[in-house]
Amino acid sequence: MKKEYFVSAAAVLSAFSLLLSGCSGASHNAVVTDGFPLTQQTVGNKSPESESSESAESSASSEDVTTPESTDVSEPADVTSTEEPVTVPSTDAPEEVWTETPMESTVMYVNTNGVYSRKKAIMGSEKVTLYALNDAVTVVAYTDTDYFKLDDGNFIHKDYLSGEETVTTTTEPLPEGITQVNGVTYVNGIMIANKTYSLPADFAPGVQPDALAAFYKMQYEAAAEGINLYIISGFRSYELQTNLYNNYCAQDGKAAADRYSARPGHSEHQTGYAFDLNSLEQSFENTAEGKWLAANCQRYGFIIRYPKGKEEVTGYMYEPWHVRYLGEELAQTVCDSGLTLEEYLGITSVYAD
Questions:
Q1: What is the pLDDT of residues 232-257, one digit of tens each?
Q2: First CA to last CA distance, the chain
Q3: How far apart are CA 155 and CA 119, in angstroms?
Q4: Which of the residues 124, 142, 148, 287 has the least number of beta carbons within 10 Å of its own beta carbon?
Q5: What is the side-by-side order of every strand in the sheet holding 274-277?
Q6: According to DSSP H, which parts of the chain are helical?
Q7: Residue 350 lies in a domain
Q8: C-alpha to C-alpha distance for 316 and 177, rounded to whole angstroms
Q9: What is the per-residue pLDDT across 252-290, written as a single tens digit (0 to 9) for each?
């Protein structure tokens, strides 16, 4: 983005005075402002005070001259005072700019549980307020980044607001052992993300510390046996998974992509408990690292999440590189059972459509 400089008439006159003084050999003390040296000096019979006065008068009489002091971008324009779009730049990231179009104050409803308003009308900006399903908000403007501006100055993406309250059609209670907290599903206390159970778009815990610590322990002890394990993919945000899935659909078609890539909100990587290790090729199972991982990962709290021959149960083809952290005791139990996590918990993994 180009940076524009605005120079007052006084600055130009002072620069010209410097040029004159340099030619006449007059002494001066230079001060640099906006790239131009301004001087305090005596030229002919003019004192610094009189020259400054003349410069100020000249500046006051000039038309269409904008100085940095007259340009204030620290606060967005009052969107209630104009019907024209207002460009609002971010104060700490100049390249982050959006345009607000004022609208009549309107009550809208949050259509997804666990949605945060954002400080800026930009994806991934600072979270402000957490809203529950059907919370009412007042919107006063719409941005070209597809966010609604609220009356408190914060923003919510258009996908999470509706003109009417959301009617819950499911009247049956959740099966025994299944709970939902802020849109996140737990089965017997285990966080689940698969084709049946999704995560909110704003759910972004990052890599879970206990899972990462367990991996480092496994990596260290594997290395002592000459096995080199490393993470190639850990936590993924809803936004990143959206991009990946859409790219795979464009590349291979939706039906094929659904066999190896999760739709946004359905990826285990968004839980922060899953890692892809070393390679994304099924031939990884035949490497020394792949064999060691399959035989030992449960000792460190991990399971091979999508085992061979279980695609109809898990919803995904065999992935010998994909491990899920459950904790040492539960991982050993699931491994000893010979079941997938879906079979062990008695749940499905099937998209609604």
A1: 999 999 999 999 999 999 999 999 99
A2: 44
A3: 6
A4: 124
A5: 231-233, 274-277, 319-325, 302-306
A6: 9-24, 48-61, 209-223, 238-252, 254-260, 288-296, 311-314, 328-337, 341-345
A7: no
A8: 24
A9: 999 999 999 999 999 999 999 999 999 999 999 999 999
Dihedral sign for Cα atoms in the order 132, 134, 138, 143? positive
Residue 56 in tokens: 């100020």
Look at residue 123 in the predicted model and tell me its pLDDT: 79
In the structure encoding, which two tokens stand for residue 163, read together?
């003109």
Give residues with Cβ within 8 angstroms of 46, minimum separation 6: 54
Out of 21, 44, 70, pick the residue that ends a domain. 70
Which candidate, 135, 260, 275, 125, places its Cα nearest to that of 213?
275
Q: And the tokens for 83?
A: 């019907």
* Same domain for 65 and 136: no
* Active-site residue identified among 285, 319, 328, 343: 319
Alpha carbon distance 230, 220 (integer Å):
10
Backbone angles phi, psi at 229, to 5 degrees: -110, 140
Q: Which residues of 72-92 are buried (b: 16+ CB within 10 A; e: fewer)?
A: eeeeebebeeeeebbebebee
Active site residue 4: no
Q: What does the pLDDT read at residue 86? A: 54
Sequential DSSP letters for 69-121:
GG---SS---TTS-SS-EEEE-SS-TT-EEEEEEEEEEEEEE-STTEEEESSS
Angle at 267 between CA 265 and CA 271, to 5 degrees: 90
Tell whether 135 and 225 lie within a shared domain.
Answer: no
Considering the domain architecture, whether residues 264 and 218 belong to the same structural domain is answered as: yes
Residue 131 lies in a domain: yes
- Alpha-carbon 67 to chain mean position: 36
What CA–CA distances, in Å, run from 333 to 322, 330, 339? 18, 5, 10
